[in-house]
Fold this sequence. Notes:
By secondary structure, chain A is an all-alpha fold. Chain A contains twelve helices and no strands. In chain A, helix 4 (89-109) runs antiparallel to helix 5 (114-145). With 103 residues, chain C is mainly α. Chain C is elongated and about 50 Å long.
Amino acid sequence: MTVALVLLTLLVGAWLLAVIEAWLTTGRLRPVAPLLAGLSHLGRESILARKPDRLFFETAPVLLLVVAVLGAAVLPLAPDLVIADLATGALFLNAVLAYVLVSLIMAGWGPNGAYAMVGGWRFLGQLIAYSMLIVMPITATAMRAESLLNSAIVESQAGLWNIVYQPLGFVLFFIAAIALAFRSPFDLPTAPGELAGGVDAEYTGVRLAVLRLARLVMVITLSAATTVFFLGGWQGPLLPPWAWSLIKTLAVAVSMLLVGFYLPRIREADLLGWCWKLGIPLALLNILIVGLLILVVP
Amino acid sequence: MVVQAFFVGVFGLAAIGFGVAVFRTASMVRSALALLFSQAAVGCMFLAMQAEFLGVLQIMMMATEMSIMAIFMVMFMMDPGGLGGMDMSHQKRFSIGAGAIAAATAISVALFSDWGPIVAEAPDAAMQTRELGFEMLGRSMLVFETAAITILTAMIAATAVAIPVRQPGVDTGKLDKGNGDKEQEASK
Amino acid sequence: MTPVLILALLTGAILFGVGIYGALSQTNLVMIMMGVELILAGALVNLVAFWRFLHPEVYAGQMFVLVVMTVMAVEMAVGFGVAIARFRAKGSVEMEEAGDLKG
Amino acid sequence: MSEAATTLAGARKGRPSILRRWVGQALARNLSCLVVPGPEVALAHGLDLAAADMRIAATPRDATVLLIVGELSQKLDEATAVLYAQMPRPRAILVLGGSAPSSLPQADVSADLSQTELMEAATRLQRLLAEGAFAASPDDFDSSILQTKTEYVCPMHPEVVEDEPGSCPKCGMDLVAREAGGDSDAGEHDENRGHEHHEHHHDHKHESEGHDHHHAHHNDHGQSHERHHGHHQNHKHAHDHEQHQGDDDHEHAHCHEHEDHQGQDHGHQQEPAQEQSGTEYICPMHPEVVRSEPGRCPKCGMDLEPHKPGEDESVKEDVSEHDHEHHHDHSGHDHDGHDHSDHDHDHDHDHDHDHDHDHDSSGFMSMVEVTKDLPRSADGLAMDWLEVPFGPCFPGLPGGLKLTLTLDGDGVTEGQATSLVAMNTSSEEVAVETFIERLAAAMPLAPVSYRLLACRAIEQAAGLEPDPAVERGRAAALERERIASHLGWLAQLGRQLSFVWLTRRAAALQLETQRADREQLVALRPALQSLIARLEHTPLLKARLKGIGALPHGSQDLRGTVARASGRTEDARQADAMYRELGFEMRAESAGDAWARLRQRHVEIMTSLDLVEVAGDPELPKLRAIDNPSGTGEATVETPRGRATLRLTQERGQVVSVELDSACSQHIGLVADLVEGQELGDALVAVGSLDLSPWEVTS
């Protein structure tokens, strides 16, 4: 039951996101468009590239989808609406998200094309940039909750949401989450204008449909994670807990889309430079501040 | 207990299988990813043995580590795609012998030692994480700090070795960073 | 309970053996490092099994695992540093061609 | 005309069923177009694809509709055929204006170049897709462009190219098969091209991309997957077969040859002793230890390795002759024709080859050897370089421009640009009116400027004095086109940088500007101002463009925006009396990078708007009545991309000779300098910032 509800949430979220994305790019609001797009992908040929590493080529989209769903599995949408509230939930999320990289390397290597290959390896560089900015803000939230249980992290924000308690962490995590989901302005691995789709470039038909779905679900999962870690999760007045989770998650997801809509793609060198020279010191500062706050304010 | 034995066995087999695959595939990326899955299976064994924190940590660390391994494989191998079908090994017989002897010794020790009484129940995961934290920042503080300093030193040393002489600004060794900090942070 | 411990120890032993084989038989530095990683993985399995089935109340066991993981990371970092330096200097990380590294 | 047809030429095989009907409907309502030559050309023609419910696809893989805008040049026509072949079925062809390209199947729908026609055509196309996306027996797409010619080359001597397999007349090596189709420059880069097993060592050379040599081919949107199917056939996938049966058929012969060859090559590798004179055993560490029997090295105790005489001369001694070093390790028999007498190894020993030994020397490759000749990257590591084509229909570059970059990972080591739609000025005699129309049609990105240029040149040849009243309207039209063109460039920049907002906003403004009269243009001023203000304050954009694409010192003959952005006072309008009258004043940036070019274009948009406001309603240049239809005339116009000069001679109303000097012909030569040593993203931004129009390149 819980599993079904979480999966349904992910799918509905992905659908809404696709509608909004199409609205932003084409200026038309068409609720059925994502469904039609999915259906038309099913009807199109699935072409295999010449001499692919077929194992990787086939596995990559599925792995990405699995990763996104597994990440969502440890995030509580309501006090009892969580597939597995692991004692190491916050760490588990990190662990799962690390496999996005694995999936992209497979997708880059598998189809045997230069654009895809460059895209896949680019993401490795991107990971070097963003990964610390995912881990460190989460660490700071876990410090406040004195637990790695995601539900405990939500409950620790009962008085004050983490977005207020540690705004620096929120900003860093939000940016890193966009980079992790490789959406514009961090869409270096796909980069339509530079690599003609990069890791996506050789996928068609059903495989492309899975890949696109996985990318949307990934955004939802990361938005849900942002909600859990920084926006007080299910907490809120009047509405039932799950509704608050859903509203906050979608709001974060849409704001991620909007950031990409209004910004050009970042330079890879700038991304690495800024993350290491600015982002990581700030993240450490955030941890320090939170530590002091915990000690000073009882 | 049967369930535990089952999962330990399955993941153990997976770890061994992928481990063997590392040296049996000609494609270097496959080789690196096989190692990744082998290590991830080891992580799953930890989970099956109720060491949740360690298991998740292992699964997390290895993803990045082995992906970096993959890019280095591609860089440094003559035939990363494995199309040439060339043999990249030497002293095969000797190695097989050494491996077999090492494994046999370890196995016989495992089988013929008296391991003493077995503890049936492990502490629950939340408790473990908490206790590990106290251990790490209490009694084992020195060990923990030493590990942290070691990793920092290694990062700096590796970067220093890797960057070209008199050619600042180009840092290929940068790829090595990342693993250490993550561990320190995650283990807090 | 003993069977599970033995199972884990056997897995560790075989991983160790495979790692030894890999580290000795491969000619490429990166592949050798892979072998070493497997050896360490075998050690990790044993450590966790000992902690779990013999002394779950002593957390130094888990601490030990963390230290070994650190060693793995350090090994990677240093190994790749050396590999890059060698590749820059010689154009090769093949051990067959590393006669000058002999002591 | 396929209006009567109910199935698509590019239908997918499959019996119509209810599910397939749904899929067809879904496809029809979700049109994604690959625009040839490019979306910016469609925009310049005033086509609003979004209004027609069409999405622009970045790659052929993602497209259902091949949308061809205008006439295509011969080269682009061929490239388009390959793009079409890369599109997954069901696929449709929509041709707007112009005839269907000769190398493609007949267009499913064709229409004229206008928005209303496009809308109507889209509706027809949707109906067609909904009904005919699947057919029981679809036509096969076959074209001579996609055929692969196999030629045989010597791995050592690239100049040896034969039609038949055999051995090299120079060195006696077996020739290896290679695809020759369509590649004019294949000879230079045979390593990257289509011969997967051509020899062992070539695989090794491809460290970073080594699992395939077809990258270049494969990603060229000048390549086909149909061609690839030839290989598929040998390796895998029945399901592709059913769909491309016909394509596979014509590949048969070629494939078998290819296969045969591979087998042969492997033969060498696996049975090196075949024609071998003998084997010696050497210590890998101590080359001076050479024994005739397997055993251990007396110095270090290592196992001795079998080794065929004549193999390792390049390893230790022969540095100068590294031409062949890769071969020595493989198959001694390649060396039948070689003269090894100058090497100090004794080749005449006749030893037994010990197959039992677990290290067969045919498997051992010296990595030092392999990497020795590899180029060094900027960071000093020897890496493989890969030549990758970008274009001619690449989403981040102007359509028709083909950029060939040599990639070193994510960095560009060198590159060059060529235009596939370059204008051919060697004209036969045409009537002056026709000439004007032709010239304007040949420059889809700046038709008004070239129409004006032609009119002026012809009028000058006829000895007509400029008429201020006419010139005013013409100047306004020219400036309007400049605004539209710069907006088009902004939209293109947005596409390149995934800056969706910019793409949408700039494209919408461009469409509004194109046909606007003075009043409408003045009304657009606030919108343009806010676009510009916003862009100059967009985070990341400055960081993205600043310092990118800076021209080397002493770059000659810069023109237009590119020149003015680097502080040069180069503007043909300064010399124009009309513009002085309108109060034209040139302003220039000085930094000379992509950011300066962006700002310069902003400034020019506003300057042009001011000019139009003073000049009055734009009027499309029309040839004034000329009474003396003979003579030579020369005219210069500051087109949106820079000064263009046209010199022509006419006789009795016929244009007999033409000479065009355009800005883009000069700028395209800058590309090589701009991309060298840059990161891929930066290199593409730098090329984009030049605002090249491949049509305006004269060949």
